[in-house]
Amino acid sequence: MRKALTQTVVLGAGAILGIAMMLGGTSATAQEGRRGGGPGPAAEGARGEGRGPAGRATFYSLNDPAPRDPVLKGAIDLHAHLDPDSNGPSYGQAARSLDVLDQARRAMESGMRGFVIMGEHMDDTAQMAYLVRKLYPTLEVFGGMANNLIVGDKVNPWAVIHMTEMKGGYGRIVELSTWDSEWSYHTVANYQSTLAPLRAKYFKNPFMPIAVCKDGSAFWAKYPMPCADGDLLPETKQILEIIASARTRETNGQLILETGHSSQPEGFMLIKEALKAGVQTIINSHPRLQGYTVEQVKQAAELGPGHVWEEFTWQFGQPTARPEDVKWYVDAIRAAGVEHSFVDSDAGQAGTVYPPDALALAAQKLRANGFTEHELDLLFKINPAKILGLTPPTLEQMGQGATAR
Q: Are 303 and 268 in contact (CB under 8 A)?
């Protein structure tokens, strides 16, 4: 009886998912209606509406045609923010404009090879990647996890091990502290006034440190000056050792370190210690957003050529991007070298374009600044595949005229 009941429930869930897919995103309407506090107007169709930092709503629709830029043919987005995710006062992060199934459908329609569900600052997303692959078996979808206060008051090596044992073996990226980093505590506008008091009820520190000064004080205790004798915490070093040695269940996949929302001094410490521990693949997370100069981006890439990858997120592709910001990204990619860099979206927040659309806009901006199609292939297709340990994209995957080297 129990077995029969289970089969019935699974069939019902599959039917619901199938109907949602056939309706082309109608499920998103219901989700966004719930997030916004009530049902959405029926005439609006699949709207990516939600409560973001300023309560803004987007005017984009999942029924809009998917982008068809050649750069998307065979592209892999290593950083997509997707539902199901949390949205409330404990973290204050933006609501999401689409969920993992909406993203999978739009990625398929755009000709993408795959994506990483990496925007969940609080949860392990390996299980979501497994389920998306069941529905979209030709998409290469992966997940990851971040070390924020959801895993305890210290970075948690055990949480990393747990992800490696998840069914499917699709959890690959391990981020250090992101939303709860010590750097965020000092640099995010509302952290100390709004977020820190909420955390103080449950944690000794209102942030998740990854490093400490020799006298035991916080690394950024004298912000904006870091301590001169800082070192990574023992737990941080344990995580680096696990990333270097552990492999994922079933797929035997190699883990990838992502430096998270760490400052430049912390990022350099992480990269150096990770290389020392034998970590093969390291992503220096969106250095522009972490306060790096162009020269520091170049220095980070030079710490481990072939192992250290510089992440450049789509913000420079926004129509409203300031010329000085666009110039920083162009100069930084050139400084690090396209062979050591990649572009991903970091999109999916309510009020922004969807991740595939963000990639297309970023590519258009790079073309306008002198990047060739082969260089775009490296940044959007070839290098992301290398980072994930995948086979190089085929000519068919990348579209006619592209070359995989």
A: yes
